[in-house]
Amino acid sequence: MDLNTVIQILDSAVRLMTPLLLACLAGLYSERAGVFDIGLEGKMLMAAFSAAAVAALTGNVWLGLMAGLLGSLMLSAIHGLASITFRGNQLISGVAMNFLASGLTVLLGQKIFGLGGRTPTLTPGAELEAQVTPFRIWLSGITGPDAAGWLTATPRLSDITLPLAETLRPVPVIGPLYAEVISGHSILVYVAFLMVPLTWWVLYRTRFGLRLRAVGENPASVDTAGVSVTRLRFAAVAIAGLLCGLAGAYLATGLSAGFVKEMTAGRGFIALAALIFAKWRPWGALGATFLFGLLEAVANRYPNLDLGIVTVPSMFMNALPYILTVIILAGFVGRAIPPRAGGEPYVKER
Amino acid sequence: MDTMPKWADVILTPLISLVLAMAISALVILAIGESPVVALTTMIDGALGSSYGWGFTLYYATNFIFTGLAVMVAYHASLFNIGGEGQAAMGGLGVALVLLYLPLPHWALALPAAMIGAAAFGAAWALVPAWLQAKRGSHIVITTIMFNFIAAAALNYVLVNLLRPVGSMDPASGRFPESTHLPKLSDMALALGFEWGRNTPVNISFFVAVIACILVWLLIWRSRLGFEIRAFGKSEPAALYAGINPVRITVIAMLISGGLAGLMAINSVMGEAERLVLNAVEGAGFIGIAVALMGRNHPLGIVLAALLFGFLYQGGGELALWTSIPRELIIVIQALVILFTGALDNMVRMPLERIFLAMRNRGS
């Protein structure tokens, strides 16, 4: 394996870990507040569809992003209603959210685009033009044709080249590493990475974060202190919705160009696994999702990894995140202890 | 806590939840520009209007009875087994190994052998999550989810690299020997002298499923083990105080649950496909959750709920065939049923309790 290959794999790992990281942090907020969320998968899927659909209809990826956030938030609201307001079973509600997203995305996609559940490809071409044209005509009535053309010309997230990337490229090792692995990703990748220190700061250095953690460990104490458990948990669930929205939008408009049926393909569950791996901590989430992203990148690159003595089949690489999580859960390698009040609805004393 | 009479708790609440789920499904159909009435009549015609439709409805229902019972047994021990999908997939592998490698001259011998294979593999797949829950306190929901994915990967590997016949491109095992094919209900009808459900996959496993319901009922409500399972599910400290071993109950309940999920394979793998294909379970493991919730974790309720979902499945297929509504409508309905009967239970229950309380106060 030469340096070029390593760089390509790392670059691919960074792209693949981004949706995992965002979803993992989403789960972190929710579960730290005591609301289990196995509906990460569904929220991501809903966001991916909404983002790709609106981006395809308007030719504007930022409107798509907004739609993605809304789509995911809608499911968060239902999850919150079921598990906080009506004190229902959070796991069952999560299962329902996953199915709801899985069915609704295909149903709506077929209704709007008639392409068997996928959205048009978000690359310039006849298929996309046909979708965007009505919106562009409508928009030019308001803004004039030039502005309308400009506003509808970015259906996909574009990659950002960081400053000095080309200047530094000749520097050995560090140059290509910077130019390929660190630079040249879409904005949401950088947002995802910034979310890690931000989440750490919010959780451990703000009053909101202290209360959020407390409500996941001992909601009664927070209630006694005169802070609303309901409101805190809803806030956490909403943040989870927003982060899943970003994850889904990145999946459909950054990582790939458009939505296809079931495109999350278990990523929500890998994020859940990463959350356990990270022991519900933000920096751990970064490490765990990088590991899982790297596994996926290697599996994509080498379908059958030849290690000299044994050949590792790609199925094993794909299953490895789940196997590792089970081992971690078993507590043989560093025990993972979930928030104490996780999964239990809070009943206020009367 | 007895604010409501038993019939209201057992029948009225799930019925209202179902009506709510169906009402919202109708709104969804309206939203995609189709007519709910046409959709419903198409489904009823396609699933219940002919013996052909019934044949498929009962075939699907058989799958869902097994997975529903699996969820139910675990639920009574207060364990949420979300791994029916993986356990049923492994059950399929058990069936395939038994039928491909044991020389079985007749289906009457092959059926019990395959049942043992299916139940053993399904139970084995539930064993590790059960043991981890009991001994190490790792959450069973998470481990069973992980095991679903591991099962999918393992099965993929086994089919592609080990069981695939030479020269075949399909990730599927070879066909099972002719002698092991299960009698279909249509064959039995012909033997009795009338024609019913020609070319439908419903087979003798349907009766196995019904017997399983009775056995599970006996187990949960008429046996010592069942009492221990329920006691443990209701209150772990109380069960502990009564001398019930939590590790034993957790593991046994999950083994039974996994075995029941695995048994689904005698219907789908042995009875219908007659070979092991990738994704033979087709989501039936997850539907088991909806079926158990809808059926209030009682075998009788599970049979009814399984019939309902069998109807939805067969009807959904007909919808996709005759109208422009995609099959995925069924997944939405399934989600809504799980949501209303499972997670939003209190939303229906609390106002009902208030009504009954008010009625009783006025009465006294």
TrEMBL record, chain A:
Presence of keyword Transmembrane helix: yes
Key words of the record: Cell membrane, Membrane, Transmembrane, Transmembrane helix
Membrane-spanning residues: 12-30, 51-78, 90-109, 187-204, 234-257, 269-295, 315-333
One MF term in the entry's GO annotations: transmembrane transporter activity
Localization, UniProt: Cell membrane
One GO term describing the cellular component: plasma membrane
Protein name as catalogued: ABC transporter permease
Automatic annotation (TrEMBL), chain B:
Lipid bilayer topology: Multi-pass membrane protein
UniProt keyword annotations, A-Z: Cell membrane, Membrane, Transmembrane, Transmembrane helix
Segments crossing the lipid bilayer: 12-32, 52-75, 87-104, 110-128, 140-160, 202-221, 249-270, 276-295, 302-323, 329-348
The protein, known as: ABC transporter permease
Subcellular compartments: Cell membrane
Native organism: Paracoccus subflavus
Keyword Membrane on entry: yes
GO molecular function: transmembrane transporter activity
